[in-house]
Structure formats: C-alpha cells, structure tokens
Amino acid sequence: MKNVFLITDDAALRRSVEQCAQAHRLDVQATAQWADARDILIKTHFDAVFIDYEVMKLEGLDAFILLDNVLQKESTIASLILRKPSARASQFIDSLASFGPAIELDGKPPTPETLQAPFDACVRSATKAAPQQDVNQSSHGPLLVEVHLTTAREGTFADVSLARALYTLAFTAASGTLFLKHDTLEHHYPVFEGRLRRPYDARYSPLSTLAKSFAWSRGSYRFTPEPIADGPTEDPYRFIYLSIERHMPSREVMQAMMPHMRAFPVRTNHWQARTESLRDLAILHRFMQACDGQTTLERALGSLGADATRGFQAALYAVETDLLSLRAEPTFQSVSIQYNREIARFRQQQVDAQTKDSKAYRARGSGRASLEAELTEFLERLEHATPYEIFGVWEGCGREIIRSKFYEMVKQHHPDVYGGNISGDVKRLVQEIFITIKDTYEELMKIEGEQRRPRPEPTPADHAPGPRLGNPRSFGSESAPTRPAIPRAMPHTSTSRADAPRPKLSQPKATPSAGADATAPTSSRQSRIERLKVKRSATPIGLGREPSTPIIAAKPRARTESQADRRAKLARIRTNSSGGRSNTGMLRAADTAANAFNEGYSAWREGDNTKLAAERFATAYNLEPGNGKYMTFYGYFLFLQDAANLDDALRTVEKAIEFKDRQSLPDAHVFMGHLLKVKEEHKKALRHYQIALRLNPKSRDALRAIRLYEKRHGEAGNADSSPFWKNLFKK
C-alpha cells in the first residue's frame, strides 16, 4: 500500500491526514471538488480513498454509487470521515461494497491526535483486503445461499425458535391466530398480514406477554390461519429484536452463538432492504458493519468492545431473521438468500395477486367493469354520508387532523393512482370522487378550528373486520381475490378487508353527551354544522349534482342526459375558475397541484407577491408531497414568508435535493445557498452555488452569488486575483 487519495475542502483535515499518512510512509493526493476527484480516480489507481462526508453528501446518492463502481473495478477500499454521527452515512456504508469502516470524529476538531487511531484501523483493513482481491476475480454476481424456511404450522421451541416462527409469519405475510403454550400456560395472539395485531378482543393476550415468552426455555407454538380484523399493528422485525434484547437470557443467547465463533458472517440482501426500518438500533448497525465476509464472528463481536454482550443479541437476531449468512471460509461476494420452493412460489403468487389487485391494473384490464361498479357505489355512498363520516373524523377534532386525513385520501383517491390509459367512465367517476373529497375538505375546514374534543373511545363495532368508507374496494359487488396459501405451512389466507360486510353509517348526534359541556361547541358553530347537514341532504357535495335518491340494492344508478350536461358544465366552471382572480386579488383555489404551482410562480415572478406565492406553493406541495419541484419552492418560501422558519426551510430544501428532480435541482441548490448564507455558512453556500451553476450554466442567481463571494473573499481583497474572475473574462 503506497498511494491514498483524499477528497476534502478543509485545510485542517487535509494536513491532519497527511501527518497520519507519514507514519505509514504513504503518499497523499487531495482535491476539494467531486468533479475533479471523479476524473482523477478514473485515470489513477489508489490503494485507499478517504472522503470528507461534508463534501460528498452535497452530491447525493448518485455520486456515492458512481464512486463505489469505480472503486470496485480498481479493488480500492474507501472510508468516510464523519465529523459527527450520521445515520444516513451509515446507510451508505452498509449498502456500498467498497466502503470499509468509517473514521468518526464525534464532533472533535480534525487533528492528528484524533485521526491517528481510526486512520490506522482503516489502513490495516485496506492492507488486509488488498492481497486477497484476486481470489474474487473469478466470481460474478451475488452468491446464492439456499435457506430452508419451515412451513409447519406447529412445532416446539426445541426445533424452531420463537424468533424464527415469528419471522416466518412476517415473511409470508400470514393472517391468523398464533398459540403459544408452556406447561399449563397458553396465550393467543392475532397476526394480520404478518404484522402483530394489537389485541382487540378479550380472547387475545397483550403483546407484552409475547415479548416475555422469549424467556421460555421450552414450549410450543401453533398457528391457525383465519381472517383477522385490520387495525393497529406492531412491526414484527423490531419486535423480535427488542424482545431478544430485553427478555431472552444472555446465557442462552451466547450458547446459541458460541458454536459459530470461527465462522465468517456476511450481510445478505435482506439487510439492505430493512436498514431503514431498523436505523435507530445502533448496536445492530455497528455489528453489521463489521460483518464483511472476511472477519470472523469472534472478531466482529470483539470490535464492539464493552458492548459485546449486546452484540451477541444482535448477532442472534441477524441470524434468526436472515440478515447474516454464516460462511465456513472468507467470502468476497455479496450474498442473496434463496428460500425453498414452497416459500418462493408463495411469495411470487403474493406479488402477482397484489399487482392484479391494484387500481391501475384493474382500470386497464379485465377488472374494469367491476371497478366501475365499485366506484359508482362508492360515489353514491359518499353522497349520502356526512363530511365527518367521509373523512372518518369527529366533530371538534380540529383542522390538523382533518388536514392530515385529507393528505392520506389524496394519495389514495387521486386520479393519477388509476393511471392514464383508462376508460371514460372510470375517469369520470374517479374525478367526481376526488372533487367530492376536496369539497368535503373545504367544508370541514370552514367549520373546524382548534381541536375541541379528543378522539372518541372505540366501540366493539369499530374493531369488527370490514371495509372503511375511504376504500372504494369495499363497496363493489365482486369480492377481492383471495391470496393463495402455502401447502402445509403458515399460509396467508386472510380475507380481504373489503370482503366483510360494513355496518351502516350512523349520523352523528346533534346534541353532546352528558358531561361534555366543557368541550361542547358554541351555539353559532353548532348551527353552522346543522345548516351544513341540511345543505348536504338537499344537495350532495359537488356543484350541479341532483338531489340524492334512495339507493336500490344491486341496481346501477341511472345516468340521465341532464346529469351529464351538468357534470360537463361543472368541469368547465372549475377549469375556467382555476386561473381567475377575485376582487381582492387573491387567486382562487386550483384544481390541480400544477395549476397551484404555476399560479404561485407567476405571483412571485410577475407580481412579487411572496405571501400569495407561498400559499400557492404550499397547496401544490400538500396535494403532491412527493414532488421534488413543489417541495423545493415550498421549503424556500417557508423562509421568505417568515424568517423564523429557517431551520424548517433548510430541512425541506435539503430533502428536495435528494429527489434529484432535473428541472428544479439547480433552483434547489441556489435556494440552499441563500439559506446557508443567512446562517453565515458561506463556504457551504458556495458549494451549492457551484453545483447549481454546473447543472445550469445560465443560472444568473448562482453566477451572481459566486461573483459576490469571489469579490469578498479574493486574495488580499483584490477581486482580479480570483480564479473565477480570470476565467470569466478569459478570451
């Protein structure tokens, strides 16, 4: 090992790394820009690469993936230098094969003293891996490891551990009742689609007793497939980890892992898929980082130091849930778990069933007729329900709960969910449903203010299996397809949420219950609610709709010509009104997120109306929270509207940058630069301006900001000495 490469723009960090490298007689080459580093790495071979995370994180995940590809071809080990702990950086390290252990400064300044020990560890890791890289040259692709996952519905803990039994239920997404027995003690637990359902019936035991069952030295289990009511559930993977950590005796944990101390643990494909949901389990992440396939289990546990006991628990959990594969010899390939045929066939059937049951698939496939019937009946049910029943909220719940419920319903019922290639009837129905939801939202927001009443206590009927009003699948004449079961296994035979009958909707009471005077609404507010109910019973939600008539079971609603004309008129009115202005100059509500964004952008660029633009950007973002462009402008205008929102604006714009939206990414970097300048972090702001200018060479805002920075920070105050000015006026 002779040459190392450093990517950083911090002069102090560069000097410290160079001094640490002298102890190993290493040559250090450094650069401050990722664009230059990429070219250097492609042209020159290095034995190790050290990366300042503060520089690389601005480039995003794409830069890390490109760097990983380059380093793998060159058989080079990389190490991140973290100034402070970062869960996001840990995810990068775990998911990229060429990255070794990180150098963590824990908030300390970069000095040779703080860097020497972790730097030496990284050099030893790179030196150890370097001569063995030729062993892997003949290997192509991931290593497939055959694993048998039991399909027995019952057994003893001597044959199958409780952790493995719960993992099987979670992986196969089974629904039913799990029975645990120890001597004369027996507990029952509901399982819904692989997740641990919180007890909703007196026959079920609390989940806390299931966690304590990990302390049993013996016992048996039995699983009976049956429909389970939907409702609050617990993540089974986290539940297994915490139960092992809190209740399983340490002696049993160590006894289970001691026979494998000389094995070489390798991370599997399941680890990368579950990293996000387990991100707060620090000991597990530290242990998994050490499981690189070339380190024995004994050494991996030893790297945890004083946390070795908890490391045993993490190791047992990783083995029981197939996050690790224990190999008899060093392994230089990634490992993918391949289960027995019954499990693999069942999982594929699950994926196919979910795809065929999706709205987009049914809207353009053979299920179009049944979908249209379901949507028709769902729309009729909406027209006969109160606003509170449509949103599943209660009087006095407050605007925040209504707003969050509205966002959920937008994601579920937006016309884009059904795709673009759909019939005219389906398209008309989904648009009417979405308009109804938006009108309901506006009505509830006019009535509700601050929360005045807590959520009512659930009744036994609330826990009964059955569809909800917000699910159009629940009102169809055709039941959802039943998912296939695993033969002789813990199968997933749960009935669809839409298959069970739904109790009739009940109108909310007009008068408060006894003892609720302290939270009862005022007389004026109650009168508004009553007027709203009368209005809805006379004319359902949606301008131009005819008064509702009694619904005859199994009989489709007649579509008269006058109704069609009214609906066409409604569409024209909404389209024309979306771009108009009222006498007060305020823009009317937009029908789509795109219209809202365009109105906000025009208000900002043409009229310099920051408040109005912020409102329009917020509307667009609320309707499509996953759109990087809307998130970019919404985040920046949080700050423009109120400087106290600076931290929220920084987080929002930083998240928008991660979306990598090509159209708005230059603006996102410019906005981030502006926000960082307010925080007096001029160096970081400059990096964002440079990235914005690289993405869009015509960006005047980025060019102006860089010019101002160069002028203020030029050598000895001379702007002409700046490299930027020399290049700018070069002929």
TrEMBL record:
Its domain of life reads: Bacteria
Disordered: where is this region? 448-548
Q: Which SMART domains does the record cross-reference, listed alphabetically?
A: DnaJ, TPR
Q: Which InterPro entries match?
A: CheY-like_superfamily (IPR011006), DnaJ_domain (IPR001623), J_dom_sf (IPR036869), TPR-like_helical_dom_sf (IPR011990), TPR_rpt (IPR019734)
Q: Which Gene3D superfamilies match?
A: 3.40.50.2300, DnaJ domain (1.10.287.110), Tetratricopeptide repeat domain (1.25.40.10)
Q: Provide the protein name.
A: Uncharacterized protein
Higher taxonomy: Bacteria, Deltaproteobacteria, Bradymonadales, Bradymonadaceae, Bradymonas
